[in-house]
Amino acid sequence: MRKTRDDLTISEALRDPLIAMVLRADGVKLEDFKQLLETAAGKREPRPTSVGNMIGALASRANLPAMPCFG
Q1: 63: region left, alpha or beta (phi > 0 left; psi from -120 to 50 alpha)
Q2: Mean pLDDT over all residues of the chain?
Q3: How many alpha carbons fall within 13 Å on the CB side of residue 67?
Q4: What secondary structure does DSSP assign to 39-64, as a single string?
């Protein structure tokens, strides 16, 4: 099985033993670190997915908006 991403998820980062050691050494509470990651994730631009790329490519060929509209 091939890993398709290099970044840890938030829950993976919160369970990582090396990150936990650094947080303890720096006196950072796990809950504060979790809030920091969630805030940063909320401000981050979404990464294009293969489905998103496909929709954008099809829309540009058909001269349609790239964002599909449902309902």
Answers
A1: left
A2: 80
A3: 2
A4: HHHHHSPPPPPHHHHHHHHHHHHHT-
**pLDDT (tens digit per residue) in 16-40:** 999 999 999 999 999 999 999 999 9
Q: Give the whole-angstrom CA distance, residue 60 versus residue 66.
A: 7
Confirm if 23 and 30 have CB atoms less than 8 A apart: yes
Q: How far apart, in whole angstroms, are the C-alpha atoms of residue 4 and residue 27?
A: 33
30: nearest Cα among 46, 41, 14: 14
Which secondary structure element, helix H or strand E, spans residue 13, and what is its range? helix 10-15
Pairwise CA distance, residues 10 & 61, whole Å: 36
Q: Is the pLDDT higher at 5 or at 26?
A: 26
